């Protein structure tokens, strides 16, 4: 009993994973930049 993944389903899964990783990367970089900016502002005082 072997289960096959059709090409359309596999392509859809890969596309969703790519888009999700891109969104998470942009969100993480935004949070990181905000943290760095806050640290720099507190260091200037």
From TrEMBL:
This is Recombinase RecR. The keyword Transmembrane applies. The chain crosses the membrane at residues 17-36. Keywords: Membrane, Transmembrane, Transmembrane helix.
């Amino acid at each position: 009993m072997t289960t096959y993944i059709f090409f359309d389903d596999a392509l859809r899964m890969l596309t969703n994973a790519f888009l999700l990783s891109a969104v998470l990367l942009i969100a993480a970089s935004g949070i990181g930049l905000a943290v760095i900016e806050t640290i720099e502002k507190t260091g200037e005082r």
